[in-house]
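lol ok so funny story. i was supposed to be doing the assay writeup but got distracted and ended up predicting the structure for this chain instead. priorities right. anyway since i did it might as well share w the group, maybe its usefull for someone
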Amino acid sequence: MGADQVEVLFIGGRSGVGKSTVSAEVCVRLEAAGIAHVQLEGDFLGQVFPAPAGDPDRSRIVLDNLAAVWHNFAALGYRRLVYTNTVSVLYADELAEALDAPVKIVRVLLTASDEVANERLAARELGSGLDVHVARSARAAAWLDRDAPADVVRVGTDGRSVVDIAAEVVAATGWSALSNGDGLDREAVRPRRRMSFDGDASGYQRGRPPYPDAVFQLLADRCELRPGARVLEIGAGTGLATGPLLAAGAHVTAVEPGANLAEVLSAVHGCDRLHVVVADFETADLTGGHDLAVAATALHWLDPATSTEKIGKLVRPGGWLAAWWTEFGDRDRPTEFRDRLDEVYRDLLPGEPGYRQGRSHAFDTDRWRRQLTAGGWFGDVAVEVMTWQQTLTPQAARDLWSTFPNIAELDPDDRESFLSRLATIIEDLGGRVDDPRLTIVYTAARTPE
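and the output, tada:
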């Protein structure tokens, strides 16, 4: 994708087909894959009464609003858009023109039978509104089926899970590395991104900072981390969480798919209370009965459709699940270092949002509450955010950023340019900077049998 080119995924379909739900899951997958994007519900752009003068169908105000909104996102470096509206696939060319940039379009038409669409509408509509929506949905379905352009990708939704549908939609985009045909980030991105850590296990051990002591104090206070506790660690890496768990007296089964990472883990933390399993968690043959399962910067790599159930079966009733992530940089604590670093990102990784623009998937508390409570295996979800900072020297910064997949994936010249400019910023600021950190911890209680 060229620096100025915009890529747009238009998702259309009749009422009751599940456009908004599928769009949300598509964006979850793109986020997990590290693909910067914007999500817009087209209906919101024309919700005004009465219609503007001379614009009875509100099409002009929709285009004007889209142009204005996209201008703001484009100025921040975003180049991909997921746009959802019933008839968006019919008017994709006009909508794309409003973006005022070269545009690559992917149109996806979600389809559903009358029976399924009406059943879904009945579940969300009350009173006389149902009949109106059913009739409108049927008319839209016929119109879309008749007039959809030849390049539209039709995706059926009857009898399929949202996860499965979204996987097919993401595959249709061909965005980034999601090109192996199924579009599922855990299948297409995990071998490249998660396993990239295994390529330089010693560098990962050297570059990544430890987690705050407060994380493990929270596990002791809330999740019964104590001497003798049986802990299952998912995605242990080189042992940044394993060490403190062992220091608390726990017996740890550490599951790590990377052989090199597991080797460092065993070398640094090996003892009679540590059992290392070199395997993908989702296929590993594990014994249940654990008091606590933990995933430190790891849960997002797992399939949200199946992982909670597997964890639930491995944790005893009354036990606990804890998952946490560290956010590097904090929009609420702006620094000159981060502002200058954003300039480097804009030059070499223009699709990456700046640190002031928002926070990562880890802070999508609604998403993680849904995932952690899926299937009823866990409940009583609590969220804690810990604020701290890491002191960086030029070398420490190079070591840390070298572990980030988006930096590792740059071509060698661009990667060295990024790391050199990063180090130079710190040198210019006196050779040491305090870089804000946030660690967000989710804990959930295993439900009784």
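The longest strand covers residues 378-392. Residues 197-446 form a domain with the Rossmann fold fold (CATH 3.40.50.150).
back to the writeup now i swear
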